[in-house]
Amino acid sequence: MHGANVPHCGDLRLYARGRRRRSLTPMTIGPQHRLKALRAEIADDLARDEAELAAGPEGRAEDTTQSQHPADVASDLFERESRLTMDRRLRSELDTVDDAMRRVREGTYGTCQGCGRSIPPERLEALPQAVRCVECQRREEHQARI
Ligand SMILES: [Zn+2]
Questions:
Q1: 32 alpha carbon – ligand 1 mean position (Å)
Q2: 119 Cα: distance to centroid of ligand 1 (angstroms)
Q3: Dihedral over Cα of 13, 18, 19, 20: its sign
Q4: For the range 54-60, what are the long-range contacts, defined as Cβ-Cβ under 8 Å and sequence gap of 24 or more?
Q5: Alpha helix ranges (H) inside the chain
Q6: Higher-confidence residue: 62 or 112?
Q7: Where are the domains of the chain?
Q8: How far, in Å, from the CA of 138 to the mean position of ligand 1?
Q9: pLDDT classification of 12: cutoffs 50, 70, 90
Q10: What is the Å distance from ligand 1's center to 135 Cα?
């Protein structure tokens, strides 16, 4: 009988306390380090992507001269197209990370750009470069799609 009402309440309190303590770390020392690491990762991907784009079809054409099938040409084009898309996405990601790093320096990191409320720490942990809360991000993406 005893314990039927206690565990749930206790769990909730523990959970809340754990979350509050964790939120202090990313807000003070966390973001710069994680953003820097993330930036290096993206810059790395971008460099690799651009190197492949530059070497691209000409580099490979020499090996596959006998098979210039329209389908191959099409898939080359498709590959190049998707690399360009990836390239653009990485660039904008890099911009976002730079923006977040600037916000850390200015002390506005963790505040939603849309509504001005603070972005939940668990979102920042999953996505250190987030500049908007989930709701505002969704709204933004919805508008971008129209
Ligand atoms: Zn918001």
A1: 22
A2: 7
A3: positive
A4: 56/80
A5: 6-28, 30-61, 70-106, 121-126, 134-145
A6: 112
A7: 7-107, 110-146
A8: 9
A9: very low
A10: 6
